[in-house]
Amino acid sequence: MNTLEILLLxxxxxxxxxxxxxxxxxxxxxxxxxxxxxxxxxxxxxIIAKSIIEKKNEFExxxxxINDQYIEDTKKELNQTTNEKMIVIQEFADQLIxxxxxxxxxxxxxxxxxxxxxxxxxxxxxxxxxNVREQKTEYGQAEPLNAAKSNNIKxxxxxxLKQEISYTEDSNESxxxxxxxxxxxxxxxxxxxxxxxxxxxxxxxxxxxxxxKLYIDINKKLVRRE
Length: 226
Known about the structure:
It contains five helices and no strands. The protein is an all-alpha fold. The protein has a domain at 174-226. α1 (3-139) packs antiparallel against α2, α3 (175-193) crosses α5 and α4 packs across α5. 4% of the residues are buried. Mean pLDDT is 69; it is low at 139-145 and 167-173.
């Protein structure tokens, strides 16, 4: 074996060893790189997982805050609605009490009218009976004209009483009719207090003298009660 062959053999051995070393180093670098990638990937996974947990906690906290705010708003709305309903109920109760007081006054007023009508009827019966007896005593019998007049008076007063009774028993009477009677009462008493006579008041308001006198008598009784 000459020198050239030995040299080529050595070069071949050296190249083989170097190639082996390079391959081994390359494999080691690849392993190290893969290991580092695994570490980095694991670290990224942990960061992502931590971020997800934080976002989840933030979301749950946000949901809790929204829920608490909704509950608080609902309570406030319910309290406001309750207060408004209580105010409406209180106003209705006050109005109802006022209506009851007004109705009591109106019933008392109508009762006075009815009582006066009844007294008028009784007085008319007594007066008519007395006149008839006196006329029979003086002349032996009552004149037909006076008897007819007496019967007309009795019939008129009885009709008025029946109408008033029907008026007080009618539960469906309109509020306008009651207010009309109260307004009529005020006008009659106002004119009477100004010094007008029953006849003058009757002509001014186009009312019957008996009705005018009835309202005036009721007013006198109310004044005496006060």
